[in-house]
Amino acid sequence: MSLHGSCACNNIQFIWRCDNSRLTPRACQCSYCLAHNAAYVTQAGSPVAIHINNQLFHATHQHGSHSAVFHECTKCQQVVFVSADIEGEIYAALNSQCLHQQNQLLAPVKRNFSQQSAKQKKQRWQQNWCKPTTITINNTALPKP
């Protein structure tokens, strides 16, 4: 199935092809994710295509272990997704608040990963996050970090 999503102003949009009909968002308990009301959905091996319409309203942030990159729309102030480059592959987790098909979501579960090392986080992301992930800005591929 294809699920669609975007920030409130549609500057950052995505199409996600996943197999799950019911998704359980994981609500990270770090201060950044709590402040942005972010809860993430993923499925290993599921492709996601992300398109950024106007790069002027796209901001990235890193915090914690600095292993992941949080992508925000500065126009509507929403975190849309988080990505990580692991061994040359881009993995992503999508903010469930940005999914258009909210009826596909179960209640979020709280998760705290602050005790994991950067290596443990990357291993978990490789096992659980969406891949392949393509990110384009006005039909130009975003360079890998």
From TrEMBL:
Family designation: Belongs to the Gfa family.
InterPro entries registered for this protein in UniProt: CENP-V/GFA (IPR006913), Mss4-like_sf (IPR011057)
Species annotation: Dasania phycosphaerae
CENP-V/GFA domain mapped to chain residues: 3-113
Protein name in UniProt: CENP-V/GFA domain-containing protein
SUPFAM superfamilies, A to Z: Mss4-like (SSF51316)
Alphabetical UniProt keywords: Metal-binding, Zinc
